[in-house]
Amino acid sequence: MTAPVRCADDVAAHVERVLRLGAPGTVGAELEWFAVDEADPLVRPALDRVAGALAGVALPGGSLLSTEPGGQVELSSIPLTGPQAAVDALAADLEVVRQRLAAVGVRLRGGGTDPDRPSRRLLDTPRYACMDAFFAADGGDAAAAGRAMMCSTAAVQVSVDAGLAGDGVQSATARWQRAHAIGPALVAAFACSPVLGGRPTGWRSTRQQIWSRIDPGRTRAPRPELGPVEAVTEQALGARLLALRDAAGVCRPAPAVTFADWMRGALGALPTEDDLAYHLTTLFPPVRARGWYELRYLDGLPDPLWQVAVGVAAALLDDDRAADAARAACAPVEGRWADAARVALDDPDLARAAAQCLQAAQEALPRLGAPRLAATVAAYTDRFTSRGRCPADETLDQLMEVPA
User: Fold this and answer.
1) Range of 155's domain?
2) Which of 39, 146, 314, 368 has the fewest CB atoms below 10 angstroms from its CB?
3) What are the residues facing 152 on neighbouring strands?
4) Using one digit for the tens of pLDDT, what is the confidence trace for 26-44?
5) Would you call 143 helix, strand, or coil by DSSP?
6) Structural domain tally of the chain?
7) What is the CATH classification number for the domain harbouring 293?
8) Is the peptide bond between 41 and the residue preceding it cis, with omega within 30 degrees of 0?
9) SS3 track for 103-124
10) Would you say 56 and 92 are in contact if contact means Cβ atoms under 8 Å apart?
11) Can you spell out the DSSP letters for 239-282?
């Protein structure tokens, strides 16, 4: 058994130990996709049908395959040097997965929300059962949002190195704060979820709106002045326990107490470092510190638009000049998560910040060894950002063209 966690300093020490400091340059990404039955698109394909098609598959880029609660298929790249390598590996693996699923009549759909099908949990594991029960206990809108979050949302998640000790543009603190500062502009630029339950929601990123409606203690952005250790510690202490794990590692429902309550003796025995490590996996902030930084706020996107999101996020974190340009561009819109999700680039300040961010990324990607990605960003800018549009706008246009 690991050591007991007695106070906030113990939590901070754990977070600091987990954080891997070093020169940036490693990039990874996770892509979540909705599995759709070609014969009956309103029915979710059974998990065993999808799993059977993918059993024993050898992915050339080394990505890992997993399943989200609503049957979403997730591809997680291995850490690679630079955004081009990460994108190329994922693209190769995605093509193999697509071919295997097509053979059994299943296709992958990209986007931040499942637009047509009701939220239904297919994956029955103790962790997800506890999560489902946790959000259901909040009742009303929070319960509906919790189920939708689990079963009807998908994301592009980009992972980058934590950064260096000390000060400077690539310090761990500067990178942490910048990852949050650019968030609203990137949410707006890549918003791709305007429909849920078969109807427009009035939000360009309904996924972001859904996440904002569940337990804020585990999803809200940190105070902007905090560094990663202080921010994660503050959130960990204040968040309610979602689940507990027994000695065999099996999850069970947790009492309605915070981790700070647990340290004060609310459950009798004090929590251990293993308990703290598990608790941290149940927190879902916009950026999660997992040794590296995981940007979790980007909507799922169709192919090949996800490549742009990965390239832009990595460039704005890893290239010094792009980092400085992005931080300056996003200063007027920092913290405007709700506006970014609701109106996206209809807001002139968000549109300006997004355009400047994509321009900075486009210029930076050749310096990062990714000229092909730079061309992809340029094409995306021409199609969307320079016109004050995001992928959600195209979805809404197409919806308007369909006869009632």
Assistant:
1) 8-23+122-391
2) 39
3) none
4) 999 999 999 999 999 999 9
5) helix
6) 1
7) 3.30.590.20
8) no
9) CCCEEEECCCECCCCCCCCCCC
10) no
11) SBP-EEE-TTS-EEE--S-BHHHHHTTTTSSPPBHHHHHHHHHT
